[in-house]
Design goal:
The chain is α/β, with parallel strands linked by helices. The strands form seven sheets. The chain has an eight-stranded parallel β-barrel. A six-stranded mixed β-sheet has the order 2-1-3-5-4-6, sandwiched between helices. It binds 4-O-methyl-alpha-D-glucopyranuronic acid. 4-O-methyl-alpha-D-glucopyranuronic acid (GCV) binds near residues 227, 229, 310, 345 and 389.
Length: about 850
């Protein structure tokens, strides 16, 4: 552990050696990638030509924000104290909308096409003075330009001379929050809501302002603040002044406020006996409601609707279509230039699993494709990237290619619901890039998803990228310090889907950690590898994330998807695995344009990574890689778990290059992830070994010579417990202590004398805090409290975790004893210990 003084010395060393001023622990929180750390003297030299005076043409909340952000950024990074001037009388930074710039500098030739929110950064002479101009057709665009310029400075990029235009790909770049009015967040993994508390909007909205600043810096221009499983009260008349407070905080950052609404609101709030979208009383109710909202929030963005989905009320109650439901509200919004996002996540979660023709994946296309052209122009159909639900791997939703006369938006998930819940490192822009670049070949033409979303292919008035963010009160917004890269990456891709995942990862790393090349290289490499690693140990070959789909969506739960109506089936039996979605099966592949349909219809042409999404094959089926399916399952899980352990080593290699507190925080998470990857690996491999009866060619699965099962130890007080499902505990069982006092599990060590690393695998529930102590003979070698907040109230794959004790000197005959004292409802449950000879 480095002490504070040593950090100081380290900081001085880094400065002397030419790096950025070291990142301080307090820099890693609210400011995220906007920390504007002071640049080292040699780097500042690059920016010495930046003018010392700033002229802002015009006045508005957004322009004032742009001005203060520029002032703040340049002061902190290069020590430049900008003076404000009214007009251009000397070298100046000039901020303003195009119209104002044209007046002030008639000689300038702005680019012919500067789309709304797009900006132009240019160095030019104005009235004989060298100026650095940031301009756009909108004020928001000017703010975006300021952020872009500051980002370049932070990353040490040259900014003079400059002549650069940046345009957003899609008009609507929104984030959705799934916050509930009581302050919780559905699928939120970073603390309480920044918006709501105990049924009201928070009194202190400081964090909301900070969030809006982050969003603006990546070009996000709208934020829906509440759960799509909406509480009707969100638009109750009495609530509107509270919403207006949030809009006031968003406004200076150019972020439009939006809310999710419950389709039955006319009934729930309006005392009507119906919410039938074709009932004129319902239409009138929405009109009045929307007018009232705009009276208080003139720049209100619009609504998001989840209907007829997972128990939400919807137009099907009246035999109406999603288009009927969307249009009645959209009409009310249109008068105010508001938009309506109607989610295509509509499906029956009571499907008959016995019917092999049933397929949840078909639902969005089956319901929405026939309605193409029936949605009003201010409606955007919001489509999850895959046909199921944010799995670690899914094919692109065919609906994205199935709407030609309807605005469409893609829904990506920043919050890692099925991808490790911010406890596992999983950098998602790598996945999103594959989706956005995927060419759907609509009408036989080149039609990458990103072009469809830009609205260019079918000349739509709007297109959208929406990210479900679910940031919370956690000081770093998303819980895992490295998960923040996903929020950054979403915004960057929404702005420019042509950016590569590599560029985004590197930008974020530089902005967050500084320009130390070793850190940049290491963190970037970890980010870029992480999605494949996560996929590798959680779900093979497009079988989806094999998690507990009925509960937490977190740990392994291979069979939980089967024999129920939720339709996340993989159909594994003792002979084979996979859903037949071809013409002989559910016909889902037929929803794609011909070239893609043909690709997926045929088992030989289907890419390995999606094989089981489209085909049911025997375990012995040979992949393009030459491996059998079953061996791939084993290998990918072993490789994935090894690579997760490698993240720990990679992070350790930059120990003295990042602040100690941040270092420890990330290290703890990566070590946990490496342990949990083994839980995943073992659960999946053991389950498939038992189900298929085909052994691992390399003999690893089911063989753990370094493991001593708790149930095989000498138990005092502890009793053997069955864990359900069985594969989530080693050997299917563990031990628990049903007493109020201590229980012990012990064994005699019988291997060679030397130093060992010992992992104690135990279960850490969130409904109690057990205490553990480990002894070698009479010597206590470790103790800890099981007080993590894992999403589990019982022993199993969600709660299974490990304690690593390093440098343990052992001799044959030593007694190793684990003492567990239950706390609350947690009975100090243990699974096994594993002993490996230390390598150091
Ligand atoms: C907000 C999944 C999630 C739900 C979520 C739903 C949706 O099913 O598990 O928590 O509900 O998707 O996107 O509407």
């Amino acid at each position: 552990m480095i002490r504070r003084m040593e950090i100081g010395i380290l900081g001085v060393l880094l400065l002397v050696s030419g790096g950025l001023e070291p990142l301080r622990a307090e820099d890693t929180g609210g400011d995220a990638w906007l920390r504007y750390a002071p640049l080292e003297t040699a780097v500042r030299e690059k920016y010495k030509s930046i003018p010392a005076s700033m002229v802002v043409l015009g006045d508005s909340p957004v322009l004032r924000t742009a001005q203060s952000e520029m002032t703040r950024g340049l002061r902190r990074m290069i020590g430049r104290r900008l003076t404000d001037a009214k007009s251009i009388q000397e070298r100046a930074i000039v901020l303003g909308r195009l119209a104002a710039i044209r007046d002030a500098a008639p000689g300038l030739a702005p680019p012919a096409t500067l789309a709304a929110d797009g900006f132009w950064l240019v160095t030019a002479q104005v009235r004989g003075f060298d100026c650095l101009i940031v301009t756009s057709s909108t004020e928001r665009g000017v703010l975006y330009g300021v952020f872009a310029l500051l980002s370049k400075v932070a990353r040490g990029e040259m900014i003079a001379p400059i002549n650069q235009v940046q345009q957003p790909a899609a008009t609507l770049r929104w984030v959705d929050q799934w916050d509930n009015l009581n302050g919780t967040i559905e699928r939120g993994y970073a603390g309480a809501s920044i918006f709501f508390e105990k049924g009201s909007v928070r009194a202190d909205l400081t964090r909301v302002g900070e969030y809006a600043r982050l969003l603006a810096s990546i070009g996000v221009n709208g934020c829906t603040i509440n759960n799509v499983n909406a509480d009707p009260r969100i638009i109750d008349d009495s609530f509107l002044p509270q919403l207006a407070r949030i809009a006031d905080v968003f406004r200076p950052w150019g972020v439009q406020l939006a809310v999710s609404v419950d389709l039955s609101s006319p009934e729930a709030l309006g005392n009507l006996d119906s919410f039938d979208p074709l009932d004129p009383r319902v239409a009138a109710w929405w009109r009045t409601k929307v007018d009232k909202i705009y009276q208080q929030i003139p720049d209100f963005g619009g609504f998001v609707v989840k209907a007829d989905s997972e128990g939400r009320p919807g137009p099907s109650s009246y035999g109406r279509t999603p288009a009927d439901a969307a249009n009645v509200i959209a009409l009310a919004l249109r008068l105010h230039r508001g938009v309506l996002f109607y989610r295509a996540f509509v499906y029956d979660h009571h499907l008959d699993w016995r019917n092999s023709k049933n397929d949840r994946a078909r639902a969005a296309y089956d319901i929405f494709h026939p309605l193409d052209g029936r949605f009003d122009d201010n409606v955007i159909v919001q489509i999850k990237y895959g046909p199921i639900d944010f799995q670690a791997r899914e094919p692109v939703s065919p609906l994205l290619g199935g709407l030609e006369k309807t605005n469409e938006g893609i829904e990506l998930q920043i919050t890692q619901e099925y991808t490790g819940q911010q406890r596992h490192l999983c950098f998602l822009p790598t996945m999103w890039k594959e989706i956005l670049d995927f060419d759907l070949h609509v009408n036989g033409e080149r039609t990458p998803v990103k072009a469809l979303l830009a609205g260019k292919v079918f000349h739509r008035p709007a297109g959208a990228l929406v990210g479900v963010a679910n940031v919370g009160m956690s000081s770093n917004w998303l819980g895992h310090p490295l998960a923040v890269a996903n929020l950054y990456g979403f915004g960057r891709l929404a702005w420019d889907p042509n950016l590569s995942a590599e560029v985004i990862a590197e930008e974020w790393t530089r902005l967050t950690f500084g320009n130390d090349d070793v850190v940049v290289k290491t963190v970037t490499a970890m980010l870029l590898a992480s999605w494949h690693v996560y996929e590798g140990y959680t779900g093979p070959l497009g079988a989806q994330t094999l998690t507990d789909i009925l509960g937490s969506h977190y740990g392994p739960g291979i069979d939980s998807s089967e024999r129920n109506g939720w339709g996340q089936w993989h159909r594994a039996d003792h002979q084979g695995i996979g859903m037949d979605r071809t013409a002989t099966g559910t016909g889902f592949a037929g929803q794609y344009p011909r070239a893609i349909r043909d690709l997926y219809e045929t088992v030989q042409t289907t890419p390995d990574e999606l094989l089981l999404f489209f085909h049911h094959v025997p375990y012995t089926y040979r992949l393009h890689s030459g491996k059998s399916v079953i061996q791939h399952v084993y290998d990918s899980h072993y490789e994935g778990a090894e690579q997760a352990a490698e993240f720990v080593r990679q992070w350790q290699s930059i120990e003295h290059r990042v602040p100690n507190e941040l270092y420890k925080n990330v290290l703890t998470r990566l070590e946990y992830q490496a342990g949990h990857a083994i839980v995943w690996r073992d659960a999946i491999c053991n389950w498939f070994l038992r189900t298929s009866g085909i052994p691992d060619e390399r003999g690893r699965v089911g063989n753990h010579p370094e493991r001593i099962e708790a149930e095989a130890m000498q138990l005092k007080g502890y009793t053997v417990m069955e864990v359900t499902p069985w594969e989530n505990a080693s050997g299917g069982t563990g031990v628990e202590c049903a007493k109020a006092s201590a229980c012990t599990a012990s064994f005699r060590f019988d291997r060679a004398a030397r130093t060992y690393e010992m992992d104690v695998q135990y279960f850490d529930q969130n409904n109690g805090e057990s205490k553990f102590r480990v002894f070698v003979g009479n010597r206590q070698v470790d103790d800890w409290v099981a007080n993590d907040r894992l999403p589990a109230t019982r022993p199993g794959g969600d709660s299974s975790t490990r304690r690593r004790i390093s440098g343990l000197a052992l001799r044959p005959g030593d007694e190793i004893r684990i003492e567990g004292i239950p706390g609350g409802e947690e009975r100090a449950p243990l699974d096994y210990i594993e002993l490996r000879a230390s390598t150091e």
